[in-house]
């Protein structure tokens, strides 16, 4: 059975139906992972015993397979009376898992900012919170746009893990077509190419952001 | 608050500071009256930066007291914040925010700390940029300016918060020689306007013209305190004499 281009094209609209779901999961997980990761890193930097706890948590997240997170959230939380939808669990799992990696990226980005920046803010009487938001975070983003973009692509590529929770994302949809028709090559290829296209769009977007951040400060 | 407190901007009393086991400030006492211009000099590593960083709370100290207009620094968080807001700091390395325009560098604290509206903050910042003779650069980024221009912006940024005391830590040491004068001229202008200042510098011409007192530090102590004419022509302490010789040669 050869590759049937017409059949492949016919599967495209069916697979793209699940594009919304893939994008929804990817985008919210990127935002969630970045938000959690950034807060973890800021908490870790506060130091002391609490900083050590956060440090341990970051390492723990990174040392655990992503499926463990998804299964734990989905099957164990209900025992404690927390019942979340498969979609919510999927987004929460991806966000938590990648927050550990992004925290490390943010750490490198903040370490590269000269100490004098925070001191100048402090000397002007700017509070800790405002210093993080208006002085540290923008300079950090400029330092880490590229590695952060790589993790965003990784998050996109991890969305098919949600198949284990029966969340209807693109690869799952492709697989459904395959099992209904017994033709695997076409739907899986179409899904693969769609992922590739999305990844390229994210990379372009990150490159654009990087250039913009670089020219805005002309450094 | 008695009369002497009103005329005193900073009172440092028996200040002691350690970095771990290293005793960096040894029993420092210094009173800065309103309007005084005090120049601090001394060999590298003598504790000059540590001292002025203690005065605005960037560094903690272990013994002694620092009072800014009667408000004690380091007593509790609220008092420290209150005291710190009376000071403006200019660093050797400028420390401008590279991702913000010159104007935004100046207005950030006005808006976030003083809660000023954008228009009002822009207006005020523009006045200070005019004062440091750099109004036409307001919409550029720090990276597009020369070192001398950046340091003048840093001065304007500190002035925006209306400090009672300006602290300068070697403001011209990172500058190319041809830019030193434009920065010193701005600081001299501030002194003429009556600004109280503590300035770490080795610019002797500036010290002679502007300072009413030169404080010489060595190994964490104040070794000599004298009017500039006396200090530069006939320093009492041998280590001060030695230091001046190294500056001249
Ligand atoms: N954060 C720090 N930790 C440990 N030692 C320090 C620190 N900052 C400065 N020192 C030491 O304290 C001494 C005085 O430093 P500093 O106040 O910067 O002197 P100066 O400004 O007169 O050159 C130096 O020996 C320096 O190495
Ligand atoms: Mg110094």
Automatic annotation (TrEMBL), chain A:
Is Transport one of the keywords UniProt gives this record? Answer: yes
Write down the CDD domains for this protein, in alphabetical order: TM_PBP2
Q: Does the keyword Ribonucleoprotein apply?
A: no
Alphabetical keyword list: Amino-acid transport, Cell membrane, Membrane, Transmembrane, Transmembrane helix, Transport
Top-level division of the source organism's lineage? Bacteria
* Primary site of residence: membrane
Spell out the Pfam families in the cross-references: BPD_transp_1
Sequence ranges assigned to domain ABC transmembrane type-1 in this UniProt record: 19-206
Residue stretches spanning the membrane? 21-40, 52-76, 82-103, 149-168, 188-206
Q: Which GO terms describe its biological process?
A: amino acid transport
Q: In what way does this protein cross or attach to the membrane?
A: Multi-pass membrane protein
Which residues does UniProt assign to the signal peptide?
A: none
**Annotated InterPro entries:** AA_ABC_transptr_permease_3TM, ArtM/GltK/GlnP/TcyL/YhdX-like, MetI-like, MetI-like_sf
Q: Which GO terms describe its cellular component?
A: ATP-binding cassette (ABC) transporter complex
Compartment(s) of residence = Cell inner membrane; Cell membrane
Q: Which family does it belong to?
A: Belongs to the binding-protein-dependent transport system permease family. HisMQ subfamily.
Recorded protein name is Amino acid ABC transporter permease
Q: Which organism is it from?
A: Neoaquamicrobium microcysteis
From TrEMBL, chain B:
This protein is called Amino acid ABC transporter ATP-binding protein
InterPro entries given in the database record? AAA+_ATPase, ABC_ATPase_HisP-typ, ABC_transporter-like_ATP-bd, ABC_transporter-like_CS, MetN_ABC_transporter-like, P-loop_NTPase
| Protein family membership | Belongs to the ABC transporter superfamily.
The organism's place on the tree of life at top rank: Bacteria
The residues covered by the ABC transporter domain are 10-244
Which Gene Ontology molecular-function terms are recorded?
ABC-type amino acid transporter activity; ATP binding; ATP hydrolysis activity
Cite the entry's keywords alphabetically: ATP-binding, Nucleotide-binding, Transport
């Amino acid at each position: 059975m050869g590759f049937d281009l017409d059949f492949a094209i016919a599967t495209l609209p069916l697979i793209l139906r699940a594009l919304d779901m893939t994008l929804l999961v990817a985008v919210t997980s990127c935002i969630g992972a970045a938000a959690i990761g950034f807060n973890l890193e800021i908490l870790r930097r506060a130091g002391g015993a609490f900083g050590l706890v956060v440090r341990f948590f970051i390492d723990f997240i990174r040392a655990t397979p992503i499926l463990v997170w998804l299964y734990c959230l989905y099957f164990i939380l209900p025992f404690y009376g927390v019942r979340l939808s498969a979609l919510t669990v999927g987004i929460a799992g991806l966000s938590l898992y990648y927050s550990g990696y992004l925290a490390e990226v943010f750490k490198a980005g903040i370490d590269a900012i000269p100490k004098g920046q925070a001191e100048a803010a402090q000397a002007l009487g700017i509070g800790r919170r405002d210093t993080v938001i208006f002085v540290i975070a923008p300079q950090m983003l400029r330092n880490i746009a590229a590695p952060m973009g790589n993790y965003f692509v990784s998050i996109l590529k991890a969305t098919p893990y949600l198949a284990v929770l029966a969340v209807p994302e693109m690869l799952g949809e492709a697989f459904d077509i395959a099992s209904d028709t017994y033709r695997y090559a076409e739907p899986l290829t179409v899904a693969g190419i769609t992922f590739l296209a999305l990844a390229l769009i994210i990379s372009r977007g990150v490159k654009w952001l990087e250039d913009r951040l670089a020219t805005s400060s002309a450094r | 608050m008695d009369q002497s407190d009103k005329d005193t901007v900073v009172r440092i009393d028996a200040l002691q500071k350690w970095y771990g086991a290293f005793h960096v400030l040894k029993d420092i006492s210094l009173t800065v009256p309103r309007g005084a211009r005090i120049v601090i000099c001394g060999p590298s590593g003598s504790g000059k930066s540590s001292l002025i960083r203690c005065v605005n709370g960037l560094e903690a100290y272990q013994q002694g007291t620092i009072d800014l207009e009667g408000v004690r620094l380091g007593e509790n968080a609220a008092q420290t914040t209150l005291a710190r807001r009376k000071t403006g700091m200019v660093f050797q390395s400028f420390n401008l925010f590279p991702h913000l325009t010159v104007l935004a560098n100046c207005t950030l604290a006005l808006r976030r700390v003083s809660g000023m509206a954008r228009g009002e903050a822009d207006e005020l910042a523009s006045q200070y940029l005019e004062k440091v003779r750099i109004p036409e650069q307001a919409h550029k980024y720090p990276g597009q300016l020369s070192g001398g221009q950046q340091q003048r912006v840093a001065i304007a940024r500190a002035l925006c918060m209306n400090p009672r005391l300006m602290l300068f830590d070697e403001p011209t040491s990172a500058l190319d020689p041809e830019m030193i004068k434009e920065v010193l001229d701005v600081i001299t202008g501030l002194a003429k306007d009556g600004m109280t200042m503590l300035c770490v510098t080795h610019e002797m011409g500036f010290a002679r013209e502007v300072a009413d007192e030169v404080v010489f530090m060595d190994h964490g102590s104040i070794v000599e305190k004298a009017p500039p004419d006396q200090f530069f022509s006939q320093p009492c302490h041998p280590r001060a004499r030695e230091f001046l010789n190294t500056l001249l040669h």
